[in-house]
Structure formats: C-alpha cells, structure tokens
Specification:
The complex is a heterotrimer. Helix content of chain A is 42%, strand content 19%. By secondary structure, chain A is α/β, with parallel strands linked by helices. In chain A, strands 7-6-8-9-10-13-14 form a seven-stranded mixed sheet, sandwiched between helices. In chain A, strands 2-1-3-4-5 form a five-stranded parallel sheet, sandwiched between helices. Chain A is globular and about 65 Å long. By secondary structure, chain B is mainly α. Chain B has one domain. Chain B is built from eleven helices and two strands. In chain B, a hairpin with a 2-residue loop joins strand 1 (131-134) and strand 2 (137-140). Chain C has helices spanning 7-18, 27-52, 60-76, 82-104, 110-128, 156-178, 181-191, 193-198, 203-229, 239-252, 258-274, 281-295. Chain C has one domain (7-238). In chain C, helix 2 (27-52) packs antiparallel against helix 9 (203-229) and helix 2 (27-52) packs across helix 10 (239-252). Classes of the chains: A alpha/beta, B mainly alpha, C mainly alpha. The A-C interface holds A 1, 3-4, 7-8, 10-11, 15, 18-20, 77, 82-84, 87-89, 91-92, 95-96, 109, 112-113, 116, 139, 176-178, 205-206 and C 8, 26-28, 31, 128-129, 135-138, 140-141, 229-231, 233, 235-236, 258, 262, 266, 269-270, 272-274, 276-278, 281, 300-301, 314.
C-alpha cells in the first residue's frame, strides 16, 4: 500500500511538473479565440497558414485596442487531421480556454465533427477552408459562418469552363473522404447537367502513398480531362506520379480550390503546367485588393499569401460583429454577422448571406504557367453560390453511376 | 488484349517492383527472428530512418548514389549500438519481452525523427527521371531501376549466404546458435553484426522506396505489418522463404486491386495471413516448431 | 484469501465518487477524468490476460472499438437506451472475441500476439473503408444515451459517474476471477503451460475463457465511450492503440490489476493534456517502456517478480 501511495505521488508530481495543474496567470481584459486545424501531416500547409492569417488579423486588431477593449489572444491546437482529436481539442478550447470564436478546421471531416461541439456549446464557428457540401446544408447551425466556397460553388464554377474549353469527357479522381467525395459528387452533377460525360470515377484514401494502382483504369477510360479533387501532400504525390507515368501530357488537368497551395507550386511546376485551378485568391492576380493584401502579408511573413486568407477575414468579421452587438454573447454576435458586409478583406468587400451564413464570393479560374497561377476567367459569386439549402439534403438523388455514351 | 496490356501487365510490374523492395525489408526481419529470437517491432522505423538518413546525405552531397552507401551504414551503426545496449540483455527472456521492448524502441525512433525533422512530408527526387514506353503506358524509369537494384542486392545476399564463410556461419547459427558457441565463434559479436546488417537492408529499402512514397515519420508503421505478414508467410527464419513470400504478397496486392476496391485489398491480404497462421503456422518454408 | 473488496479499494472508490464535488473539477477536467478512468479500466482488463494468464494481446483495441461502434450504430438510429447499447456491444464483441480467442489460443508463444494483431487489423481496415460506418471519419454527432426515457446522460458529471460505475463493476469482476480457482489455474498456465496440461486442465479452454472475459470487459468500456464523445472512429482500433494499452499495463505494473488502472489513467492524462504543451512526450514513453523491460519488468507497481505466484492483495 505504501508503494501505491508512493508511486501515485511520484506520478502526480510528474504531471504537475509538466504543467497540467498549473493555471496560467491571466492579464486583465483578455478574450481568447481558438485556432484549430491540421498543424502536421497531409494538410499542415493549410493549418500553418491559417495560424499566420489569424495572427496577422489579431495583431492588427490589438494595435487598435483589441475588441470591446479586450486584448485578443489566440490558442492554437492541432487536430491531427482527424475528427476525434478535433472534437477533443475543440472541447478543451471551449470548456477550458473559454474561447469566444473557433476558427477551423482544415479537413472537412474534422470541421463537421467540431460543428457538433460548437453547436452544443453555442460558440461562434468560422470555417475558412473546408469545402464539403454538408456544412451549409444538413449540418448547419446558427453559430456557423464561412467564407470558403464549398464544393457546390466550385463545381458550378469549374464545370462550365471545362465543358466549354477543355473537353466533354472527364474522369473524376478524388480523395476518398468528406471533402473529395463532396467535390466529386457536385462536379459530376454539374457536368452532367451541362451535357458532359463522366467516363469514370475513382477515389483514393486520404494519405495514399502510391496512386499507380488507379492509373490503369484512368488510361483505359480514355478521358479528355482529368478532374482532380485532392489536397495537400496527396496532391504533390499524385502530380509527381502522374507526371512520371506521362499522364500529365496526355490529358488536360483541372482541380479544385484547395488542390495545391501556391507555395507548393514551385516544387512541381513542370507536372502542373497547364493545370486549371479554381481559387478565390492568388498572389498573382492583378486585382488591386488581392495585391494590397498580399503585400501586407508578405511584408510580415516574407512569403506570399494563399487561400487561407479567409481566416484573416473571419477574425475581422467576428470582431466587427462583436463591436456591433457590444457583446461577446454568441446569439447576439450571430445576429450581427448575418447579412453583414465588410471592407478590407483579402478581396476587398465581402457580404455574408443571411440564409446560410455563407459569403457570396467571387472566384477565379487560373491556369498554371511556369509555376505561377495566371488568372483566365472571373466567376461571379452570385452565379455560383446556388440556392440556400439549409436543412436540405444536398445529395438527394445523386448516383455515382457512370452513364456511358456510345 | 487491350485489358491485358493496359491494365494487367502494368499491375504485375507494380507488384514485382514493390515485392522486390518488400523482400529487402523482410529479409532482415526474418534473419533477426531466426537468429536472435526477437520479433523486431522497430524494423519499420529502421526502414524509415534509412530514408531520413538519405535526406541528410543528399543534402550534404547532392548524390543519391552516395546516400545509397552512406545511409545504410549510418543506420547500421545506430542499430548495432541499440542492439548492444538494449536487446542483448533480453535474449534469455521470453520472446514477448522482445516485442514490447522493440515496440518502445520504435516509439523512441519515430518520435525522435519527428522532433528532429518535423512531421511534414519530405521528398527525395528520383535520381533517374523520365519514363520508358512499356506495355502501352509510359513507365517511370526509376521504378524499373528499383526493381533491378533490389533484385541485384537480393542476389548478392544469396551469394553471400551460400558462398562465403561468414554467410554460412550465420545460416548455421540460425539453425543452432549454441553449437556455434561450442565451435568457438563469438556469438555475441555475430548477433550484433547480423542485427546491424538487417538494419542496413531495411534502411536501404527505405531509401530506395523514398522517391516513390515520399518520406514521413509514419512510413515505418505502415510497412511493418506487411513485413510481418511476409515473414510469417515465408516461414520465420527462412530467408529464401521471405523473399519468395515478398514477391507473392507484392503481386497479390497489385492483382487484388484490380478485382476489389484498392482499400479493401488489405483485408484480403490479412485474410490470407490468418488462414496461413491457422492452417500452417510454419509458413511456406519455415521450420516446424517455431510457432507450434 | 482476500475479500473481493478490501477497505482500501472502498476508500479509493469513495474518493473518486466525491471527486466531482471538488471546485477544481471543471467540466473539462471531468471529461478528462472520464477518459483516464476508462482507459485505466481497459488496461486492467488487459492485465487479466497479460499479467495473470501470460498472453499479450496486440489486438485489444479491436474489442474496444467494436464496442464503441456497436453503441454508435444504435444511437445513430435513435435507440437511446444505454442498456440496449451495452447488450448489443456484448453480443457483437462476444462473437468477435469468440472467433479470435478460439484461433489465437490454439498454439503457444507469440502466436497469440500475432494473431490478435492481425485480426484487429482486419477489423480496423474494414471499418476504415466501409462508408456505411462513416469510413475514416466514423460515426459522428451522436445523441446522448439514456438510462431510461427522460434520464439522459447529458452532463459531464453524469458521464463521470457512469464510467465510475463501470470501473467498479469491472474491478469487482476481475477481483473475483483472480481470487477464484479459475484464476489460479490461469496463473498455473502462465507459469508452465505443459504442467497445467499434464495436471488435466484443458488449457485452451481456460485461455479462451480468460480472453473472452478480458475482451468483453474491454468491449463494455468501448461501448461507454460514445456516450462521452458522441462519435466512434476507426482510429480507436489502430494497432498502435493496442500498444498503448500494453504500455499502460507495463507502466502501472503487470499482474496487479490496480497498477494498470493507474498506469492507464496516467498515460491518458499525459497524452491528452501534455500534448497541448509539448509533443515529445512519446519519446519519453518509449524510453520508459524500454527501461521498464530491461530493469523493471514488473512495472512501477509490480510485485516481486512476474514469474512467481502472486500473493494476497496489497
């Protein structure tokens, strides 16, 4: 028994030493916000840039006195790109750190999982990059806001251009989890509605190392265009391997908004040559607002910005809403955010649609030329956002079946 | 005919390429088990560290070829030190201790690498770029090289074990270590060299596969299970068995992806393994009594 | 002959029962305590197999995960009764455990470890890639379970008492097993399987029974998990998770029942809490594991030698 006591005491001491029990001293009048996302692993680029964008917004706000006289502090958590740790960490952010805003996550699976938590604990939740179609439909709740064009918006934007300018026969290759499935579904729907033909569909698990097992089927179906719904390191691997099998020259390539961060383009410029990508932000877009934002970001961090700029906007929106509502109370802030328009975001002016808390955002199509995203078409937000479908099933009636022509 | 060339044969080729590298990896594991009686859970991490050692060497020398020599050396030395310090003391204990201890070693290695290099993915560029028109598709030259070099190394090892005194000694020791001791051979030193050699092989496999799979701390975790399966299928302690089994598993994996969802293939492979363990635990070429 | 519940155990449980009343225990800490006690209880049931029967299972995470999915599947469909979920989990885990234990105990040595590992991998891969169960994201957004209609287990305090109850029952069962004749046969098998066989005991039957008890207790623990987390994911079943159970047993003290509870609790708190501040603790854990095997195979709390018969409870 003495041994039990002794050992327990030692273990307890160890825990104390590692700071478990220590309660950090609090500066007066501080408000905390949570930054949760993939800080390591397949999506870590997005997670790291999310942190940088949030940091820039917070510093700007604090320089002007913070929000409602409170200095803003950011608590950063890594969700390991999985729903379970995301939920645990978000619980910690809300219950222990008492954050008034949660920004995140990166992976759609994680974002949807923490939406349950933010709903339950009534915390304002801003999503800047996840694009599955469920967040503003079946999983929607009143504290959730987003300025990331979701897969439905992206599909609407891409399908028409691909059908008109690239080819009518498309092979859809996606990453087999929430985001990729979502993109695949929406794009197939959009393309078939225009009269295009989906000659084949396949999904590879997240974090696949070797994509070559799928290449035989792709070659066999003989498409004009490869539509790729991948992100992060998967995209890097996929493009390298497609290139080594000669497929980047054989087919036209197109992909979603988060396929590759501009920063990673340089490493695989050659495989990506001619790739058509959709994005709402690029440092190479001559638009005055984007250039101004990029200059600001580059001055601070020494690198170009990317689509994670949505996180910067999110913090600014939240702060503006708190000021407007004169309170941190989530219900009041949520009301203030609905329909709010704001200047000074990474693309200038943004407005949040009241019905589904989505920003009506213009997007652009870019073609990769010599490692740079060059804009080719502008897509108006109003054309792509689609009808609000809060509470409705966005995939009702969808089928993966390939309807082969001739 | 179109199906054959466009789909089936390339899959076979994928299987051969992967099987060759898997053979390199599994060979070390089976020798260590046969000789030392330790099922090394950290073998996957040795594989992983080979790739990271490669990154370091390539950063310094810009040569993949130098890395092919230097990386296995580096990992081999680390393995030798590890063996003397931690594994040697437990030879006399139950094999389950070896499992748990090597599991702990694997943790240390994996997380240690993550601390040093960060958790993000690194790339090693293939030293042989370009591709060759083959079987109706253009096949990357590097993968062909991978197949060639792995086979060459396996052949060299076979020659070592059958034609050289040292190799025959090791094979004898795998059969009966106590007899060797009686013959005056320094068994401890033999064990250390063998362990280091197995580690060198594993790390070489890691480096060779790196341009295809990219480099990240978890890469060992994913390979170790396959390596275990190969070793069991081939017969624990049977070197020829593990090579044959590696090719079988590599090709089986590739061919199965044609008939079922690539993600379910793992289940089929595990299923085979369960059947083997139940019906014939000694595998294809293993000795009786090892697992029975 | 020790009683099932010594007064020392009673004191500890009473202290645990009073824990939520402490002002220090925020909602977050209560949930953390839940995780710690759950993990500890599962480590304890693994110890029944590892410490007392001498069988190292590298696939225990599958029992845990299956229990969790069983509950999740029912909760997802609106079957909110906790009792039905537990019963269903017992059935599901029981069938799986029957198959695994039958084949794994057929031969000796590391055979058991390897087979449990591979069976668990099959289960993990199946759940990871089957969309009907949510694929890699698992089953999310589950409603709270109920004791009976109207009595929802919705607050962290209620969840805490649920896991405490589970720990109590699991502990009692383990104690009964260990101090019974059945338990002593298990120890005999661990010491020398052949001798036990020569004495006339059907060794495989005993091993299977031990495995089933351990598996079912673990499965029940897994079944309780979604009540706290509102999800079940395939990550609960990765083989490294099984490794973490083993680590908990080794740290706490193999063959002591109580040790693994503390080991499991310690490990959970370390993992969930410390990971926010430092991320190199796994290196320490790995090193500790190596050191324990080399110098202290009995673990921090272990008795004086795993290989010798256990004396009355301390």
């Amino acid at each position: 028994m003495k041994r039990v006591l002794g050992v327990s005491l030692i273990l307890a001491l160890v825990l104390v030493a590692t700071g478990v029990v220590v309660v950090p001293a609090q500066a007066p009048k501080v408000v905390k916000i949570g930054d949760i996302g993939s800080k390591v692993g397949v999506f870590e680029g997005y997670g790291k840039y999310q942190s940088m964008m949030i940091q820039m917004a917070v510093e700007e706000l604090n320089a002007k006195g913070g929000v409602l006289g409170h200095k803003i502090e950011v608590v950063v958590e890594d969700d390991e790109t999985k729903p379970a740790p995301a939920v645990r960490k978000t619980e910690k952010l809300i219950l222990q750190d008492d954050v008034k805003l949660v920004v995140g996550a990166v992976s759609s699976g994680a974002t949807m999982a923490i939406m349950d938590v933010t709903k339950k604990h009534k915390t304002i939740h801003w999503n800047a990059v996840s694009c599955a179609e469920f967040m503003r439909t079946t999983k929607f709740h009143k504290y959730y806001f987003s300025n990331q064009p979701d897969s439905r918006m992206q599909a609407n934007g891409l399908a028409k251009y691909i059908y008109d300018k690239m080819g009518k026969k498309v092979y859809i290759f996606y990453t087999d989890y929430a985001m990729g499935q979502s993109d695949g579904r929406q794009f197939k729907t959009a393309l078939e509605q225009l009269g295009g033909e989906v000659v084949g569909v396949a999904g590879a698990p997240l974090d696949t190392k070797d994509f070559s097992p799928w290449f035989g089927a792709i070659n066999q179906s003989n498409p004009d265009v490869l539509f790729l719904a991948f992100a992060g390191t998967d995209s890097l691997r996929l493009m390298t391997q497609l290139h080594s099998f000669g497929m980047t020259k054989k087919y036209k390539l197109a992909g979603i908004d988060c396929f590759l961060l501009q920063q990673d383009l340089a490493a695989i410029a050659e495989p990506m040559e001619g790739f058509v990508q959709l994005a709402h932000y690029s440092p190479y877009n001559p638009d005055a607002n984007m250039q101004a934002f990029n200059a600001k970001f580059k001055k601070k961090f020494g690198v170009d910005g990317n689509i994670m700029a949505g996180a910067y906007d999110g913090v600014l929106f939240w702060a503006a809403a708190v000021e407007k509502a004169k309170s941190f109370d989530s219900d009041k802030v949520s009301e203030a955010l609905e329909g709010m328009c704001m200047e000074g975001t990474h693309i200038g002016r943004q407005c949040i649609r009241k019905e589904d808390h989505q920003v009506i955002m213009d997007m652009h199509l870019y073609r990769v030329e010599k490692g740079k995203n060059v804009p080719i078409v502008t897509l108006s937000g109003k054309d792509t956002i689609g009808e609000p479908m809060v509470g409705k099933d966005p995939i009702a009636g969808f089928s993966w079946e390939i309807k082969k022509k001739n | 005919m179109d199906y054959l060339t466009a789909v089936l044969l390339p899959q076979l080729l994928h299987g051969l390429v992967f099987g060759a590298a898997l053979g390199l990896l599994s060979l070390g594991l089976t020798v260590v088990f046969g000789l030392l009686g330790v099922m090394n859970f950290a073998h996957g991490e040795l594989f992983m560290m080979g790739a990271y050692a490669g990154i370091v060497v390539i950063a310094l020398t810009h040569s993949f070829w130098v890395a092919m020599v230097a990386a296995p050396l580096m990992v081999g030395v680390l393995a030798a030190i590890t063996e003397v310090a931690t594994i040697r003391p437990i030879y006399r204990r139950e094999p389950l201790y070896g499992l748990i201890l090597t599991f702990g070693l694997a943790l240390v290695f994996r997380e240690g690498i993550r601390q040093i290099f960060g958790g993000d993915m690194r790339r090693i560029l293939a030293p042989l770029p370009g591709s060759t028109p083959l079987l109706g598709m253009t096949y990357p030259n590097y993968r062909l090289f991978l197949l060639a070099i792995s086979s060459a190394i396996l052949l060299a090892i076979w020659l070592f074990f059958t034609k050289t005194r040292a190799g025959i000694l090791v094979r004898a020791a795998v059969q009966d270590a106590e007899m060797l001791d009686g013959l005056g051979v320094n068994v401890s030193r033999l064990f250390t060299w063998t362990f280091a050699g197995a580690a060198a092989l594993a790390s070489l496999a890691g480096l060779l596969l790196a341009p295809v799979y990219t480099v990240y701390p978890q890469m060992g975790v994913e390979m170790i299970l396959l390596a275990f399966i190969v070793v069991i299928l081939g017969g624990m302690g049977s070197m020829g068995g593990s090579v044959v089994a590696a090719f079988i598993i590599g090709i089986a994996q590739s061919i199965f992806t044609l008939w079922m969802n690539p993600q379910r293939v793992a289940i089929a492979i595990f299923g085979i393994m369960i059947v083997v363990l139940i019906a014939r635990p000694r595998g294809l070429f293993g000795r009786e009594g090892v697992l029975e | 002959m020790s009683r099932v519940f010594g007064w020392r155990a009673a004191v500890v449980f009473a202290a645990l029962a009073l824990l939520p009343l402490s002002p220090f225990m925020s909602r977050y800490y209560l949930l953390l305590a839940f995780d710690a006690l759950l993990f500890g209880a599962i480590a304890m049931s693994l110890d029944l197999l590892m410490g007392y029967t001498g069988l190292v299972s590298f696939g225990h995470a599958a029992f845990y995960g299956l229990g969790a999915y069983a509950t999740a599947v029912l909760l997802e469909r609106g079957v909110l009764s906790l009792w039905l979920c537990l019963a269903f989990a017992v059935v599901v885990v029981g069938i799986y455990a029957l198959v695994v234990s039958y084949f794994s105990t057929a031969r000796r040595g590391i055979y058991f470890a390897l087979l449990t590992l591979i069976f668990a991998e099959v289960v993990y891969t199946f759940f990871r890639y089957t969309q009907a169960f949510g694929g890699s994201d698992g089953i999310q957004g589950l409603p709270d379970a109920q004791l009976w209609p109207g009595a929802s287990i919705d607050t962290p305090v209620k969840k805490y008492y649920l896991v405490l109850g589970y720990l109590l029952i699991a502990y009692a069962i383990c104690r009964v097993v260990v101090s019974s004749h059945f338990g002593r046969v298990l120890v005999a098998i661990r010491e020398n399987e052949d001798r036990a066989r020569f004495l006339g005991y059907d060794v495989q039957r005993y091993k299977m029974a031990a495995c089933m008890i351990s598996a079912l207790l673990t499965g029940l623990g897994g079944a309780i998990y979604p009540v706290r987390s509102a999800f079940a994911t395939p990550d609960l079943m990765v083989w490294t998770e099984s490794g973490e159970f083993i680590i908990s047993v080794m740290i706490g003290g193999i063959g002591t029942l109580v040790g693994p509870i503390i080991g499991g609790a310690f490990f959970t708190i370390l993992r969930d809490k410390v990971s926010s501040y430092v991320d190199w603790y796994f290196i320490v854990i790995g090193a500790v594991l190596v050191l324990i095997v080399l110098f202290m195979p009995r673990g921090l709390l272990g008795l004086r030698g795993w290989r010798r018969p256990r004396r009355a409870a301390a």
